[in-house]
């Protein structure tokens, strides 16, 4: 369809897609393209539409590191803000923290990362490509399931669980599975493997000018919270149970990093450690499981694309652990981990620092080391999920409308503002509306091209509302507001616009 052909006249200042015949105008989940296509589509639209690009692209890119463009950075800020509000502002027993990326090296001895933050690495001798041995086997199991070989898949899965729990024998046990099942290298197809060996994922650097002290870039934000247990609790005068929340960068020298922002070497985490009385941790764990699932749904995610997944292998310090998984185009994968970590971390920091990390309960008159329930989600994975879930295309009058159906609260731009023409002062009115609304949320003024083109640009950016100033505005101080999802239009008084958009946003939440 040639959108330029739409005449610029008030009577025709309508959405050229308004008569959607193929899909009735509602907000039910839209059909998505097939998974393989979806992965490529999301990667390419992320670049084209200014969401996410590979870091240092002009130099050929730096593997598994990504930059957020003008749209991506707004989406990211909005998702962070929603998480922070739900954790810190909406719970008077949770406070925030912002710890540094580099920490005293003993932190990582205490947490166990120096010794055990390893992945099992295996090399394909033919191509030189490196793989995580456990992931190779997991993908093999998935392929067996897809081919209907359920019993075989289950037998291999049981062996994998055994191998992952085999302690010092883990490498040999994983290698044996790969050999016995004759799993080929995914890229080269060769069956020519090295032994499996453990690879530590922490990035090392030196602090100080000469013969500096070896320090690590933190591989998780959680330890910043544990070491600040007293510093966060005492000034805030909190008593157990209470939580500390943090958003920040983490770094892992991942072996396999070919999955866009799903697996990065520099990424951001949103973590909350909830300190509880020993013995109550499993109740809190159940509560946080449900609350975290609801939070993901509150982003507008289709609930059928989310599920809980129990861990096959519990860390030695955990007494319960579950992942929230999302049905990514690369399969069901971890989005968030919820772990009941006992008193492992506080006790270890007490042991390594020599400082007391216990809590005195003034009502029960007893001292104990609190247990911890942790919720840990990756911000970048959350954004990947939001992009995948929001994307859809539909046929309208023989043309394709490509939409990012973001929840209005997280959409990078909440409203587009268009003067119908550049005549009779319409741009001035549109600019005034822009100045008013950008006090509340991000808006975008656009006077380029036909109305159809402007609507399409905003649909592609996921902008939920488009406001058009037309000639009627001059008489009655009203504007047209077009809804991205239904493509229906309302006439709204200019002085009611902010209220209208807030109401529609709240209703969207209710109807999503
Ligand atoms: P995986 O099994 O996928 O490697 P993990 O179990 O090691 O993940 P956690 O240590 O529990 O992950 O980290 C908490 C969250 O941080 C994860 O649920 C994920 O959302 C995010 N995360 C972890 N590693 C990465 C990464 N390399 N890139 C992007 N996000 C990550």
TrEMBL record:
Q: Name one GO biological process term.
A: diadenosine tetraphosphate biosynthetic process
Tell me a Gene Ontology molecular-function term this record carries: ATP binding
What would be one Gene Ontology cellular-component term for the protein? extracellular exosome
Q: Which residues bind ATP?
A: 252-254, 262-267, 334-335, 378-381
Task: Tell me which CDD domains the record gives.
Answer: GlyRS-like_core, GlyRS_anticodon
Q: Name the keywords, alphabetized.
A: Aminoacyl-tRNA synthetase, ATP-binding, Cytoplasm, Ligase, Nucleotide-binding, Protein biosynthesis
The primary location reported for this protein is cytoplasm
Can you state which reaction this protein catalyses?
tRNA(Gly) + glycine + ATP = glycyl-tRNA(Gly) + AMP + diphosphate
- Note whether Aminoacyl-tRNA synthetase occurs among the keywords: yes
| Keyword check for Cell division | no
Q: Where in the cell is it found?
A: Cytoplasm
InterPro entries, per the entry: aa-tRNA-synt_IIb, aa-tRNA-synth_II, aa-tRNA-synth_II/BPL/LPL, Anticodon-bd, Anticodon-bd_dom_sf, Gly-tRNA_synthase/POLG2, Gly_tRNA_ligase_bac, GlyRS-like_core
Q: Where substrate is bound, by residue?
A: 132, 220, 267-271, 374-378
Its biological function?
Answer: Catalyzes the attachment of glycine to tRNA(Gly).
The entry describes its oligomerization and partners as: Homodimer.
Give the matching PANTHER family: DNA POLYMERASE SUBUNIT GAMMA-2, MITOCHONDRIAL (PTHR10745:SF8), GLYCYL-TRNA SYNTHETASE/DNA POLYMERASE SUBUNIT GAMMA-2 (PTHR10745)
Q: Which family does it belong to?
A: Belongs to the class-II aminoacyl-tRNA synthetase family.
User: Under what name is this protein listed?
Assistant: Glycine--tRNA ligase
Instruction: Give the originating organism.
Output: Salinibacter ruber (strain M8)
Q: Which gene encodes it?
A: glyQS
